[in-house]
Amino acid sequence: MRAGDERSSSMTNAVKSVVIGTAGHIDHGKTTLVRALTGVDTDRLPEEKRRGITIDLGFASMDASAPDRSPLRISFVDVPGHKLFIRNMLAGAGCIDAVLLVISAEEGVKPQTEEHLAICRLLGVRRGLTVITKIDAVSSGRFEEVYFDIRTFLNGTFLEGDRATILPVSARTGQGLDELRRELISLAMNTSANNPDHLPRLPLDRAFVMKGFGTVVTGTLLSGEFHEGETLTLEPGNRSVRVRGMQTHGRPEDHARSGSRVALNLAGIEVSEASRGQTLVAQETLTAVTTIDVEASLLSTSSTLKHRSRVHFHAFTSNTLATVSLYGYNAVEPGPARFMRLRLDKPVVLVPGDRFVLRQCSPAATIGGGVVFDAHPLPNMRKARCLTWLEALKEASPEEQLFLRVERCGTAGITMSKLMAEIGITREAIYRITEQLVSGNLLLRVANDTLLTIQARATAMENVTSRLKSDGIKRSELKSQTALNTEIFDFVIEHLAREKRLRLQDERAFLPGPESQLPNEDLKLQTAIASIYQAAGLAAPASSEVAAGLGLKEADMRRLMTLLLRDKILVKMGADALYVHNRALEQLRTKMREFRGHTIDVARFKQITGLSRKYAIPLLEYLDRQRITRKDNDQRLVL
User: Fold this and answer.
1) pLDDT score at 147
2) Residue 526 in domain
3) 499-515 per-position pLDDT tens digit
4) What are the CA-CA distances from residue 14 to residues 192, 200, 255 (Å)?
5) Cβ neighbours of residue 215 closer than 8 Å, sequence gap 6 or more
C-alpha cells in the first residue's frame, strides 16, 4: 500500500513526529515553500494544477536529525488560502502541533493572514514560525517595510518575536531555506509530546480506494497508538474495522504513535462508508456526541451571539451546524469567555479539552471558538446547577474533576467505561487517579467497576432503610421503590446487612431485630453530629462539646462517632480525640496542592489555615500519612 500523500521515509518507530500546518493568504507561496523544503508538490488535484491554487489539504514530510542525532520527522499539512475554502483549512489546522505562517513580501498582511492566525489561536496552537516569502521579488526597502508591518501585526500574539522567528526566504533561489530548516527542527524539538494518558483517536482527513488494497484512510494520530491487525471503531456509526496495513509517510509500519501522519488500509468497510470528519478510536472507548457544554469567546470583530443562534462548528476534521443555548440567555459579546451548550446537527467524537472554531452562517466568517468542558452533560440536570458544576470544574484539579463527575451522578454512580468516554483518558489513568480518591475516603468502588461517593452511599442507605417494614418487603420491590441500579442496590443491601441495619431472609428485607436495631433517632443524631463537624471545618470541636450540645450521654456519643468513623464521614486525627469532617480534609488537600514543591513549617501552616498549634500539629501529621507532605526535621515538603 502506498498512499498518494505519504512520502517515503527511512525513519524507525523511535522517531519523534510533529505536525506543522501552513497558514496564510492565497498565493503567498505556502505550497511552493513546502515543495522547496520537502520536494513534494502537495497540490494533488487536477483542478489545483489547472487553477494554480490549493483547494484541499496537502501533505508532505521532512526527515531530519535532532541535535542529539535522534531521528525527527516533521509532517506538513498544507492548507488552502482562499476564503472560499476556509472549511478545508479548518480541517487541516485542527490537528497540528505548530503553525508556519506564510506572508508574501509583495503583499504583506492580508485578510486571510489575519483570519488564519485567529483560527490558530482559537484552536489552541501556541507555537510556530513566521516566514516572509518571495523576498527575491522585492527591493530591500520594500522588505523592511513589510517586515515592520508584520512585527506590528504579530504584537500580542503567540507568534510575537524578532528576526529569530520571522524568517525571510525565497523558495525560487533557496535563500533562507537552510536557516528555516534549522528553526523548524528547533521548533519540533520544543513541541511537547502528547499526553500518554489520552485514549487513541485519529480524525480522518481523507478516504480513497487504492488499487489492490481497497479502502485507505489518512489522518493525524492525536493520541495513543494504533497497531497493524488491530480492530478499531469508526465513529459516528460504531462501525468495526480492521487495520490490514499501515504506513507513515510511505514506509510500512506495524504500529504508529501519537503525532504521526498515518495511512491505514482498512478491512470491513467500503470507501463510501468512510469520510473526512469521522474518527477512528479504540474499541469500546469513545463515542460521537451531539450535545456538549463548552466555554467560548468571540473575536473582537464579531457581532453578538444570541440564544438559539445557528453557527458552523469546526473541530479537528469535523464540521457541522450547531444551535447555541446560552446559560442565562443574555447575548454573548466579544471579550470574556462564556459557558454555553451546543447542540450539534451531526455527531462528533469530542472529549474535554478539545478546541473548536465557530463561524457564522451568513455572511460566512469566523466569529469565535473555545474549549469543550463536558461532552456528556446529564440530560435532566437543571441549568442553574449545571452552570455551577461547570464553574467548579473549571477551577478543579484533575482529581477534583473526576470527583465532580462521580458526584453529579448521585446514587447511580458511574462506571469506569463511562468515565473513560467522558474524560477521554485510559482506564489505567482513571485507576491511578481514583486510587488517591478512594484512599482519601472520597470515593468507593462498587463491584470493581462502578464509582460512588461516600455521600451518595449514605443517601442510598437512607433511601433503603426508610422503606423497611417490620413484616418485611420483597427485595425486588425494595429495589424498584429505591430506583437504584443493581450494582448499587446490592452493594448497599450487603453493607446494611453487615452493619445489622437490616435483616435478609428468603429474598425479603426486614427491619433489624431488637438486638441489632438502629433506631431512626440514631440516623438523625448521626446527621446532626456530621453537620456540626462539617460546619466547623478544620477547627473541629471536641466530641464532648458536641455531645453536651446535643444532650447525649458519653456512651451514646461514642457509639455514634464509631458509626461515623466507619462510614468515613469523620476522620480521627492521631491519638488525640480530634475528629474532622472528610469534606474539610478534602478542601485542605486541595489547598495544599497550591504549594507543591515548596517547604513549610508549623508557623507557615498556621498562617495558611488560620489555625492554632492545637489543630496544626495533628493535621500536618495527617498530611504526612496521606503522603501529601513529607517531614524533614522542622520542615515539610509539599509533594
Assistant:
1) 92
2) no
3) 888 888 767 888 876 54
4) 16, 18, 11
5) 207, 208, 209, 265, 266, 269, 270, 271, 274
With a CB cutoff of 8 Å and minimum separation 6, the contacts of 99 are: 20, 21, 22, 23, 93, 117, 120, 125, 127, 128, 129, 159
- HSE of 382, CA atoms in CB hemisphere, 13 A: 3
Segments of the chain scoring below 50 in pLDDT? 2-13, 48, 515-518
Residue 71: Cβ-neighbour burial (10 angstroms; 0-12, 13-18, 19+): middle
147 and 208 both lie in a single domain: no
Write the pLDDT tens digit of every residue in 532-589.
Answer: 988 888 988 888 889 888 889 888 888 888 888 877 788 888 756 789 988 888 888 8
Do 24 and 165 fall within a single domain? yes
Contacting residues for 52 by C-beta, under 8 A, at least 6 apart: none
Q: How far apart are the first and last CA of the chain?
A: 50
For the chain, how are helix, strand and coil distributed in percent, rounded to 5?
35, 30, 35
Q: For 539, which DSSP code?
A: S
Looking at every residue in the chain, the average pLDDT score rounds to: 85
Nearest CA to 90 out of 5, 23, 154 is that of 23
> How much is the pLDDT for 401?
93
> Which grid cell is 47?
483542478
Let me know whether 73 and 208 are in one domain.
no
Closest listed residue to residue 184, CA positions, set 259, 79, 97, 121: 97
